[in-house]
């Protein structure tokens, strides 16, 4: 890399500006909380919309748009705080109810089974349709679940359930048409439609502060250029947790560049091979295990000397909630030795990777020369438009050490555990209405064990998420989550 250029004084006076690399060239209005499939979508949306409640950096639930929460059995009463958009329009309990109904109408939610809890048996075709479990009384949003669930409140912390001002949505199509009117700390001030998006701070937001960025410039990463080089060239100030840069590259860069602060999470970033319904239907478990063994061979070699990375053969880490027990680990090891001798012709595997696809492609072709590898831009199971469905795909997801209903239900609905759609719905409904945590942990162990022993899923590598930022910016991000909440980056 070339030598560092002097910082060009982006933060004069009170107008603090933070320039952020971003792995997307999409226009702002293509993002929507009801359709979150990829990590960068979540990161963008969590900075411009706020949910009713939030998890802090330690995993503790705290107030969000709702300043007060009262829970009585299966009934939640959420008092909406005095919150306004940037231009002063109040965000009300009616906006919160509208947002939840919009989610149900557009049916894009991948976190939890909210519909079954609050609108059992109902199919909302309009936000005007009645749902007995969603009611508004003055400044209070009242949610009544048909069954008591330990997850109704924490589920609302996912950005899927973000509060969206009704006035910012087209009344007929329910598409978001105005991202200047948002419930989050930031709003979209300008957008060139090619990934250059400028956010401005909403001074009326409860996260607004003097020492956070007043303006955020999202800067797309050009082809053949790395985010770290963009830092060196003073084109940006912050590289996010979901950047394409490998964690070892970020950590190595930080060692030799004291002009920057860096952040690292626990090893919650998991690369894995996941078989789609197509692969589950016409490949045997032994054939899937053979393919998985070949892919593992490649990734273990690729990441053998990568700082912070380690081989992983389970989905939930050993010290995490719902991890396999000793007997299951031993049985899995034995079953993994049962592999086929040959791989059928015509197999295809998608590579969910946004940069340097050759890093994976070339070594994979050496060990699996008859397999057709191609790049995919979304999780095939969640893809809504017609594309070639591969037998499997290789991609990443975040896992955790604590019971996180958002991560669990996303993994379930994206096909990670290999269940059919009816099986997923049945399992999740039972899980979310089970009060006993030991019983839930057994359910989680068993579903993971079944997916691993049937080779529906083959874990490959675990590593941390990393971020790096130019001093005097300092990060107060969580080491438990992959989030990159930009209001937690302080100017000191």
Beta fraction = 15-25%
Helical residue percent? Answer: 25-40%
Low-pLDDT runs of 5+ residues are: 1-13
The global form is: globular
Radius of gyration: 23 Å
Characterise the protein shown here.
With 492 residues, the protein is an alpha+beta fold. It is 27% helix and 22% strand. The protein has helices at 39-48, 93-106, 114-118, 152-155, 227-232, 247-256, 277-282, 285-302, 326-335, 358-367, 405-413, 421-432, 437-453, and strands at residues 17-22, 53-55, 61-63, 66-72, 75-80, 83-84, 90-91, 134-137, 140-144, 186-191, 197-201, 215-220, 238-239, 260-264, 269-275, 310-311, 348-352, 372-376, 392-398, 457-463, 466-470, 473-475, 489-491. The strands form 7 sheets. Strands 16-20-15-19-17-18 form a 6-stranded mixed sheet. Strands 1-12-11-10 form a 4-stranded mixed sheet, covered by helices on one side. It has a 4-stranded antiparallel sheet with strand order 4-5-9-8, covered by helices on one side. Helix 8 (285-302) packs across helix 10 (358-367) and helix 11 (405-413) packs antiparallel against helix 12. The longest helix has 18 residues, at 285-302. The model is unreliable at 1-13 (pLDDT under 50).
């Amino acid at each position: 890399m070339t030598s560092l250029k002097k910082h060009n004084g982006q933060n004069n006076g009170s107008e603090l500006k933070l320039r952020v690399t971003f792995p997307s060239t999409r226009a702002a209005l293509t993002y929507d909380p009801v359709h979150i499939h990829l990590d960068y979508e979540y990161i963008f949306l969590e900075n411009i919309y706020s949910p009713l409640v939030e998890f802090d950096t330690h995993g503790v639930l705290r107030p969000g748009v709702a300043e007060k929460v009262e829970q009585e059995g299966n009934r939640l009463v959420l008092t909406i705080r005095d919150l306004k958009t940037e231009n002063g329009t109040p965000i009300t309990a009616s906006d919160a109810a509208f947002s939840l109904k919009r989610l149900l109408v557009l049916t894009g939610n991948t976190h939890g089974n909210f519909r079954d809890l609050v609108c059992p048996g109902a199919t909302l075709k309009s936000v005007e349709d009645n749902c007995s479990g969603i009611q508004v009384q003055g400044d209070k949003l009242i949610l009544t679940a048909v069954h008591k669930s330990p997850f109704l409140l924490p589920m609302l912390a996912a950005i899927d359930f973000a509060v969206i001002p009704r006035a910012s949505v087209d009344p007929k199509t329910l598409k978001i048409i105005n991202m200047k009117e948002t419930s989050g700390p930031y709003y979209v001030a300008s957008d060139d439609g090619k990934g250059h998006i400028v956010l401005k701070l909403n001074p009326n937001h409860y996260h607004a502060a003097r020492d956070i960025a007043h303006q955020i410039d999202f800067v797309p990463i050009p082809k053949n250029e790395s985010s770290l080089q963009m830092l060196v060239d003073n084109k940006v100030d912050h590289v996010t947790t979901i950047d394409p840069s490998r964690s070892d590259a970020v950590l190595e860069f930080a060692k030799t560049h004291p002009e920057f602060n860096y952040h690292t999470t626990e090893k919650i970033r998991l690369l894995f091979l996941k078989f789609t319904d197509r692969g589950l239907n016409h490949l045997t478990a032994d054939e899937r295990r053979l393919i998985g063994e070949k892919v593992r061979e490649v990734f273990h070699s690729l990441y053998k000397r990568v700082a912070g990375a380690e081989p992983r053969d389970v989905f939930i880490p050993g010290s995490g909630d719902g991890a396999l027990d000793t007997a299951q680990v031993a049985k899995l090891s034995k079953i993994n030795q049962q592999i086929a001798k040959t791989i059928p012709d015509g197999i295809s595997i998608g590579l969910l990777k946004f940069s340097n696809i050759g890093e994976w492609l070339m070594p994979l072709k050496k060990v699996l020369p008859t397999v057709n590898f191609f790049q995919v831009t979304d999780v095939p199971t969640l893809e809504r438009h017609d594309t070639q469905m591969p037998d499997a795909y290789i991609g990443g997801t975040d896992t955790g050490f604590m019971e996180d209903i958002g991560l669990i239900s996303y993994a379930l609905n994206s096909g990670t555990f290999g269940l059919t759609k009816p099986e997923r719905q049945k399992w999740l409904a039972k899980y979310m209405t089970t009060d006993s945590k030991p019983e839930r942990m057994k359910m989680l162990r068993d579903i993971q064990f079944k997916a691993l022993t049937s080779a529906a899923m083959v874990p490959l590598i675990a590593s941390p998420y990393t971020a790096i930022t130019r001093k005097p910016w300092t990060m107060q991000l969580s080491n438990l989550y992959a989030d990159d909440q930009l209001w937690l980056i302080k100017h000191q």
